[in-house]
Design goal:
About 65% of the residues lie in helices and about 0% in strands. With about 350 residues, it is mostly helical. The chain has one domain. The longest helix is centred in the middle third of the chain and has 31 residues, at about 185-215. The protein is elongated, with a radius of gyration of 24 Å. Residues about 1-25, about 320-335 and about 340-349 have low confidence and may be disordered. One of its GO terms (cellular component) is membrane. This is RTA1-domain-containing protein. It is found in: Membrane.
């Protein structure tokens, strides 16, 4: 039997080099996935995840636990994508990669919410800890965004699972995840709704975090000497929030909104995935490694929960010590490091 090579975008959507014999080989992708790109992506994500996990344990930053779930899902996702790129006819790694890569950023965003809450309680003057100043309730920063993000995560999971189930039970040789998204109207609508909710959540958080970064410039006159510490952590939060938001916008645009629309170019070209999904997430992991939160916070701020009463007392005690030396010029104000928060304020480092 003569084996016929097919073009990448013909009716059956087989990748170049795919062929038919007595049994039909089916490619779940719309394009021919590049194995070298999958190898590089898996290695980069894996190394960044290992570096992040090492710092998580070293600095005992238990409040950052959602980031660990996110990196585990990313590693699983990109590993499965590599396996799927090598063996395109194996459905299981393809579907697992689709779900893990789609849903993992929700956990990375949750880590940013928690870190932002720690920054606010660490750096904001006590008299400014209110909704009017922060545009959010300081005591409920993390729960507010995490609950909203978790709800959007569940909605996305329901939609993605519906699409995946349809794909898994489709025996058509021309099937693809795009065609499944177009056929399963309910699953597609649910998935897009979850993505829109997620974009709204990320965008709201990004605006609030960026605004705090700007208005905190006015806190310099009340600075306790910890300015450079928490400002670096603010770089992480704002940079990561912006990248995750852009990635969520790409995902929302990529999914077909109905049977005749959707940005087909984003769906049918692999470089769009690497540029608008993989690269932003790799950049988020990189900035988390560079500006790891626990390197710029006292140990009392890195546990699973934050004792807000102690945080207020700590700032009051340090502020009282600073105000007691009225003759000291501002230029001589010392710069604190995390290990300096020991003793007087009752903080163990």
């Amino acid at each position: 039997m003569t084996h016929r090579h097919l073009r990448p975008h013909d009716a059956l959507r087989f990748p170049p080099g795919a062929w038919r014999s007595d049994s039909i080989l089916m490619n779940p992708y719309i394009y021919d996935p590049a194995v070298p790109a999958a190898v590089v992506g898996t290695i980069v994500i894996g190394l960044l995840s290992l570096a992040l996990a090492w710092q998580f344990v070293r600095y005992r930053s238990w409040f950052f636990w959602t980031a660990m779930i996110g990196v585990v899902m990313e590693v699983i996702g990109y590993t499965c994508r590599l396996v799927s790129a090598i063996d395109e006819q194996n459905d299981s790694p393809f579907l697992l990669a689709f779900l893990m890569i789609l849903l993992a950023p929700s956990f990375l965003a949750a880590a940013c919410y928690t870190a932002f809450s720690r920054v606010v309680w660490f750096s904001c003057p006590n008299h400014s800890l209110n909704f009017r100043t922060l545009w959010c309730f300081p005591s409920y920063i993390t729960p507010t965004f995490v609950i909203f993000d978790l709800f959007s995560f569940v909605v996305q999971l329901a939609g993605a699972s519906t699409v995946s189930a349809n794909y898994n039970h489709d025996d058509s040789p021309s099937r693809s995840i795009e065609s499944s998204e177009r056929r399963v109207t309910a699953g597609r609508v649910i998935l897009v709704l979850g993505l829109i909710m997620q974009v709204s959540c990320y965008l709201s958080f990004a605006i609030i975090a960026l605004r705090y970064f700007i208005i905190s410039l006015s806190f310099r006159c009340e600075d306790l000497g910890d300015w450079k510490m928490w400002r670096r952590l603010s770089y992480l939060i704002n940079f990561a929030a912006g990248l995750i938001t852009l990635r969520a916008i790409y995902r929302t645009l990529e999914i077909p909104h109905d049977k005749g629309t959707g940005l087909l170019y984003l769906q049918r070209h692999e470089w769009c995935f690497w540029a608008f999904d993989a690269f932003p997430i790799a950049a988020v992991l990189a900035v988390m490694v560079i500006w790891f939160p626990a390197r710029y916070l006292p140990r009392s701020y890195t546990g699973l929960t934050l004792d807000k009463r102690m945080a207020l007392k700590q700032k009051d005690d340090l502020g009282h010590d600073k105000r007691g030396d009225v003759d000291a010029p501002p230029a001589q104000l010392r710069e604190f490091k995390p290990q300096d928060f020991d003793g007087g304020a009752g903080v163990r480092v």
